[in-house]
Amino acid sequence: VQLQASGGGLVQAGGSLRLSCLTSGRTFALGWFRQAPGKNREFVASISRSGAVTSYSDSVKGRFTISKDNAKNTMSLQMNSLKPEDTAVYYCAAREASYLTGSSRDTDYPYWGQGTLVTVSS
User: Fold this and answer.
1) Is a pLDDT exceeding 80 seen at residue 25?
2) Which of 27, 43, 53, 83 is deepest in the core (most CB within 10 A)?
3) How far is CA 57 from CA 72, 116, 122, in A?
């Protein structure tokens, strides 16, 4: 299983970015995590294998939207109203194919993309 994240960059506070994750082969329940410098990796959002069920961390709820297109094997994270504290490397991750739902635990995801850097300036 291969995942490739893209779309990171530098944006001013209040701006928007859209991250994408391309997955290989089968359809998976997926998640986005992020890791800021000097901090632990944290959950951002997850989406079920079908795309019908989504979940968000409290810190991004109402600002970020996760979605997926199973026909194109892609997942997206639309990030609006960005804040400097959103600055981090963002990773997409996939669960084993047998799981229908996403998870907020990074240990539930055996497959990870390489990460894409998001920098929000104040």
Assistant:
1) no
2) 43
3) 26, 19, 22
